Amino acid sequence: MSAPPARAERRPVPVARARGLRRFAAPPEPRQERCELCGVPVTEGGHRHLVDTEKRALACACTPCALLFERPGAAHGRFRTVPDRYLSDADHRLDDGAWERLQIPVGVAFFFRNAALDRLVALYPSPAGATESELDPETWQTVLGASRLAALLEPDVEALLMRRTEGRAECYLVPIDICYELVGRMRLLWQGFDGGAEARADLQAFFAHVEGRARTQEKGQSR
Q1: Read out DSSP for 48-80?
Q2: Structural domain tally of the chain?
Q3: What is the DSSP string of 170-220?
Q4: Residue 75, CA distances (Å) to 42, 65, 149 in order
Q5: 73-96 pLDDT, tens per residue?
Q6: Which residues are CB-neighbours of 57 under 8 A, at least 6 positions away?
Q7: Are 102 and 8 contacting, i.e. CB atoms less than 8 angstroms apart?
Q8: What contacts 39, CB < 8 A, 6 or more positions away?
Q9: 105 assigned to some structural domain
Q10: Domain closes at, from 50, 66, 81
Q11: Which of 14, 6, 69, 8 is nearest to 38 (CA)?
């Protein structure tokens, strides 16, 4: 007799993180973007992001500040620069039964490790924004642990982005900020029960961009 599926508690994303998503979930404001640490102007789309590990939020950063917080231990680890690497695992397999164990009602989700809580966090886009589903360690190992990307995941700043569509699974290691960007885009475009044609087209374009940037992680590679 098989064990029952792992139960997952769904709950809204904390307010602090929701504030960090506002830049993706609302139309661009006609104002100059600035580094949220030193205040210098930065260009839209041409700057880096930091993760504020205390507030669980993203912050815009100029290049010098981003480079500063790439150093281990800078600011006692409160701010961490989001990396810019994209990796794909072309051999990753995920059948319908495994996806159902995640108890995620849509075909897209991303997973990152919260270093402070030392646990995996699963999020998926919805009309209300990012919805969180906590996973127990057994589910993580059973469903995602087979991916060679899981061992490379940097806590807080990178995510495993997965999509399940038409019996095919895609698995990428990506910067955490683009996952929140996806959440904001889906929230703006979502219509009806299934998201609507515009949201589906945007999702397709988003994954085409990710696939175009991703480098395939070969067996035996550590980085």
Answers
A1: EEEEETTTTEEEEE-HHHHHHTTSTTGGGGSEE
A2: 2
A3: EEEEEEHHHHHHHHHHHHHH-BTTTBHHHHHHHHHHHHHHHHHHPEE--TT
A4: 22, 11, 28
A5: 777 778 999 999 999 987 777 777
A6: 16, 17, 19, 20, 51
A7: yes
A8: none
A9: yes
A10: 81
A11: 69
pTM: predicted TM-score of the whole model, two decimal places: 0.78
Q: Which amino acid is at 176?
A: I
- What is the residue range of 34's domain? 15-81
Q: How many CB atoms lie within 10 A of CB 161?
A: 27
Both tokens of residue 168?
């095919």
Query: What's the rounded Cα separation, in Å, for the pair 153 and 113?
Result: 8
Structure tokens at 82: 């989001």
What single letter denotes the amino acid at residue 108? Answer: V
Task: Name the packing angle between helices 15-25 and 176-189 (round to 10°).
Answer: 70
Last residue of a domain, one of 25, 49, 81: 81
90-141 residue pLDDT tens:
777 777 777 787 778 888 999 998 888 888 888 888 888 888 876 777 777 7
